[in-house]
Amino acid sequence: MVLDSSPAYSAGPRTTPTRLAERARYDRAAVHAILDADYICHLGFVADGAPVVLPTMYARVGERLYLHGSTGSRPLHAARECLRVCVTVTLNDGVVLARSAFHHSINYRSVMAHGIAHRVVDEQERRMALDALVNAPFPGRADDCRPPTPKELAKTAVIRLDLADVSAKVRTGGVGDDPEDLGLPHWAGVVPTTRGFAPPVTDDQGTGPVTAPVPDYVRQAL
Amino acid sequence: MVLDSSPAYSAGPRTTPTRLAERARYDRAAVHAILDADYICHLGFVADGAPVVLPTMYARVGERLYLHGSTGSRPLHAARECLRVCVTVTLNDGVVLARSAFHHSINYRSVMAHGIAHRVVDEQERRMALDALVNAPFPGRADDCRPPTPKELAKTAVIRLDLADVSAKVRTGGVGDDPEDLGLPHWAGVVPTTRGFAPPVTDDQGTGPVTAPVPDYVRQAL
């Protein structure tokens, strides 16, 4: 599946930053790690000449991103042929409070993937992708739920974006104040963000003979 | 500043969902509350015919969104005249694990704002917007740091998007399994997400006579 197995993506016109070039990353491991740390992306496409940015789930499998949705949704409908997209994933790691307003910043990791998204038609790949999407927040879940029926599958479209024209941008570290501001009396520092899960709320509609306990693959993520 | 002071935005062709219409919200209070709960948006625009989705900070002031960046950055440069944008803000509130793969979902609140962004040229509005951006994560910060110098201001561009063609989408609540699946033995429920701040890390480069304590406006957010 990996057409280019070099350890880094190639910088192209779309992935070469016009500024803050030191924040750009092209190595596959760094890009994959960011993509694997979340499951909500922002999908950009052009509709009637105007940009649209849609939050949606994604899953990475090797060098491919998979997204899904109703066959009736706008981008998935358009992607029957092909759809030019930009998929962006962003993790906010903290707020950087500098002594100067100008040097306030955010610590973040983001990935931007450009390319042509295609509808997945191969039924085996489609099922694999849907499993990957169900597994994205809690790996293991796809094997612990009822698989989709043919009718449900017919309502669901999957699109694929090959990771090729892709780069990451990362800001880490501390305050970037200018030396002449270090004596100012304002507090400066980084306030890291946290993200996690609260205790699960079990659905009370169950009518089965078994009241299943919260599964291990959920407990482990808490 | 508010041209249309009705309690709701008008649904237009871009903000009328093609599906899951019950998740759409147009009332200003709901839209404002979502926008005010975060400070990182995804800015979509079209460059050379292709979509670009850029994570960036924003601040809401009344019925306007302000974004900023280097005057050299692509969208801010393009917005000297005007730039068609879609600004999307998304809060992930939890993962919905249904008994059926098909009904897995995410609880979320999102706002999508479409329109033409313009560069702010009025110096007073620009300063106000920059203060709002510094205040976005921690209200009160703009008054407790060194204001921008003329040179810094010259490097910084601010763009404005009026909130008019805007809607929210919200999914809340529990599992949406079909009645015939309620007897299945798989655990089902919602795993709420949490987000917050970790203890601040004070910058150790300070050379001033005063070691400022972590300010109240940061402590209150922890």
Automatic annotation (TrEMBL), chains A, B:
<dbReference type="InterPro" id="IPR024747">
    <property type="entry name" value="Pyridox_Oxase-rel"/>
</dbReference>
<dbReference type="Pfam" id="PF12900">
    <property type="entry name" value="Pyridox_ox_2"/>
</dbReference>
<dbReference type="InterPro" id="IPR012349">
    <property type="entry name" value="Split_barrel_FMN-bd"/>
</dbReference>
<protein>
    <submittedName>
        <fullName>Pyridoxamine 5'-phosphate oxidase family protein</fullName>
    </submittedName>
</protein>
